[in-house]
Amino acid sequence: MSAKVFQMPDSARKRPPAELDHAVLKKTKNTNDARLVARRRWKMIQGHVLLSRWLRKTVGENNHRKFCKAQQSLMDSLFTSQDDFIDVLLKIREQFVSFMDAENCYMYIATTRGVLEFDGQSVYPSTRIQNGLLHRAFEQGIPMHVPTAVTSDLFIDEKDGLDGLDVRSYLCMPLQNGSRVVAVAEIFNYRKGIQTIQDYVDSLQSAIDEPNDLTVFSRFVAQIVTSLNISFEPAQRRTSFPSTASLAALATPSDISSDAVLQRAVGLLHRMMAIDHCRVYALDVPSNSLFSRVFRNQPSMSIRVGDGIVGAVAESGKAMHLTDASTDPRWSIGTDNTSGLAISTVLCTPIIGPDGRVNGVLQLLNRRHEPSFTSVDHAICSAICTHLGVEIYNADLRASISKAQVKAQTLLDLSTILFQESDIKVIVRAILATVQRPMGAANIRIYVTDREKHELVLCDGDRRRRPMHDGLLGHTVATGDVCNSHDVPSDTRWTLAWRAEYSDVRALLLVPIKDATGFVLGVVEMVGKSAEAPKNYFDQEDEALAIGIAYYLAIAFNNAISARAAVRRSDALIKMLHVVSSCTDVSSVFEEVITATCEVLDAEHAMLFLVNHIENTLTSRGSEKTKGCVLSMDQGIPGEVAATGVPVILSEATPHPKFDASMDALLGVTTRSLLCVPVVSREKIIAVLQVINKRLAPSFVSDDVALMKAVCVEISSVIERRSLELLFHDEEHPETELQKVTSDFLAQFTDVHRPTPSTHHPASPPLQETTTTTASAPTASISALPNLDKLQDVVDWGLNPFTLPRELLVVHAQSMFDGFHLLDQYQMPIKTFQRFMLSVRDQYRSVAYHNFIHAFTTLHMTFLVVYAQATSKKTANASLLNVRDVLALFIGAVCHDMNHNGRTNEFHIKAKTSTAMLYNDQSVLENMHAAHCFDTLRRPGHNILEHLTSPDYIYVRKSIIRIILATDMHFHSNMVKMLHERFKHGVFQHDAEADKELLLNAIVHSADIANPTLSTSVHTLWTEALMVEFNEQYEEEMTLGLSPSGFMSTRAHSPDHARMNIAFIDSCVFPLWSIMHDFLDGLSVCIGNLHRNREYWVAKTTTGQDV
């Protein structure tokens, strides 16, 4: 709008001043009013325009989402139809009825022999296609729209109508695949707006170059119908339709693997679009690569993210369409694994997962019968990619779970191999056979480092050798880093010489075998992926598994090295003892000691320095190269050790300020690692032993220090012995000059003066032998081991009863009894047992906590504790319980809270309930539970204890009553005190009645309060349920005017809730379960959960947030 310009007329200038002023004011007022009105109108028009644009945009977006959802629904039906085209036609008909809000819709499908008609129930040859609007739609390929059939001359009811249907509006919509009409949708009595339908009709008549949602959808449906390959043979008429639940099950088939769905998607694409090649790439985020999930007659392929068209689509998340690859600058020959293929057109569509992130790429190559891919092709790819995204996402989850299971099982197998085998060759062969399949490697080789010869030795039959520092293997040994290459020939991280060694290999994984100190013992070499592997490279999960394999190999190598070293040390020590006992030459004995020391410590050289405290010098003895070398007490590392008496261990000796390189010159070696230890006698340092250069390791370790001290004890013994021999030196056999020098040094280590020579020699003390006796192990009291086949579903510490139906809880309870042979042992008919168990279940009330799920949990925890003892390798634990005890434990556990009303003993006593009056305020609920238990057993057909002998029945009944009464928290502290006193091996007597009673009571009581020993997810559910009962009791106490228990007002998910759980764990659960864990076997899982749950609650109190 343009604003009007108001001007004062000329006549106004001729008026008198007074009239002139009045006229100007009036004109100004009118002008201002007009401008205000114009401004308001302009703003109103702007608002209408903006609102119209917003509505048009919103409606368009809603329609677009609706069409996309419909396309996705049709694609889902194609995936789940199992080649039943009627299900697909039903879904197409539903979409048209939904779009048009119509009463009825008929589908007509063109085949080579005629037209088939689908009325929503069955498919049969059509008789209505011969004439009328339907015939014109097929022949001309244009939609026929009759808004009002009653008044229209175009619509003839005899030709176009349906029997029994009052037609008010009519739409006949042809579905074209290219220029050919493949089907027609005939819609009756739509309730959509006439103008909206007319817009749809107009859009269908628009050019293919201007596609819209309905055009794309109609051609989408046409290509789906074409892909169904419907034959003219009439299908049988259906009398019923699948229910909503069954349709939902079809929409998400659990029995169809993701690979089968992906293969089906590729098959659909080939049927719906004439293409030469179709590839589905999945994104491997940790490896930043895409690998082919579907490949027919081709090896697995991979592409780096960002490389080529596929990599660019994965990186950007946007589809790319190359209408002519030969002229497109983005394309080059061989891009995207297309070597040897003639490529003309390319369509790459990103596959989006349910989390909204790209998890793959769909690649289509060479569209036939079309110059390029159309907008309908884009829509088909988009719909299929949505489905593929879900399948790839699910497949990745399943693959991760499967790989985790395979990894755990593989590592478990490796640990079993290490446990069962001791021969390193057998271990290596077994490990290679175990890991070949999980790793999916074409070839696996294991090399061991030979530090003496600086070579890598292949662990196979011929034990081939190669230089330790050459190539990629040498690089791995030198750096200790994992080398994982997806494409070795093109990997620029390595030199050309290194890559040349693996010129014919694509994937390579090298993992160092390192011990706890990081020392490289060898290398695991995995070359190439097998043809069956889904990826043609080693991903991060493969790398993690390979590191685990290397870890177990390191253990095996270390064990082998330790075993070999132990043998060598044993031989060397025996040799040293032989030297000490057999050598009579005073000077040569040190040479033998030095040689034995090198063998013991696996060192290159050793030197012994005798300390002369009179002259403050150290003199070398025992080595020909350093014979007679004298050091002052402040010279070199030996001098420092002699002065301080503290051993020195160095991985690199050169940087040490006391290191003396002159010794290297004498020995003709270069010192790397060094260990120097004092030789002490009578609290006096009499010598220093120094060894250099560990052969098979970079340095000496603390174990070597301990071994050196043991050697020094022997050396001290030698020196002491030779010093005593000086007292009886024979002058008739004159000493050499060296012997005299040695004797002078030795003379200072004895407290007596050297007398005249004597030929007497002290007698060696006789060797004493010690014998040990072993006691025979007692036999187990349970006659037969539990039946694992019957218990396989319940031997699980992580069993979550909240996820199980009530019927399955009873089945699991029966499995526990039957697995311990209780039904056979005591002749319990299965029907009798089931009646008893169902009656017990029905007597548990529907309260939040003390319900049958809690009873089952208590029984299950009791069962697991008993099972752990019955299968224990410790004979003492396996004999703790007999069959009668197990029967009493199981019945007491499942019945210990029967008829519990969700209120505590204190509540019953304060409220003076009839139950409290009946049992005189003494363990009110527990007495009631025991009474209900045996009252149930008295019912006809419920007595599972019927065939017990009289002594057994008395014992079992007494034990059940004691077990149930012991669940009263009033006795908790006294029980813990008794357990501290009695639950000790050597103190506990399983045949003593008092100890046996304490054990049975403790097992069920610990199971009753075992919620903190469960997994955190299950534990928190129990704490919330308990808070519900506490809150209900608090509110009832307030209503009845009773003094309430303050802690019962605590609300779930509050900081007080967390503090209450910490207090319960610290004061009740942990003291009891820690004793049980120390005395019984197999409870480590519970203790671990207990600590994790406590940390969980502590974290909640620390953060100050609601739980």
Explain how this protein is built:
By secondary structure, this protein is of the alpha+beta class. It folds into five domains: 170 residues, 2-Layer Sandwich (Beta-Lactamase); 146 residues, Beta-Lactamase (2-Layer Sandwich), CATH 3.30.450.40; 139 residues, Beta-Lactamase (2-Layer Sandwich); 146 residues, GAF domain (Beta-Lactamase); 308 residues, 3'5'-cyclic nucleotide phosphodiesterase, catalytic domain (Catalytic domain of cyclic nucleotide phosphodiesterase 4b2b, Orthogonal Bundle), CATH 1.10.1300. The chain is built from 35 helices and 24 strands. The strands form four sheets. A six-stranded antiparallel beta sheet has the order 3-2-1-6-5-4, sandwiched between helices. A hairpin with a 2-residue loop joins strand 23 and strand 24. Helix 14 packs antiparallel against helix 15 and helix 21 runs parallel beside helix 24. The N terminus is likely disordered.
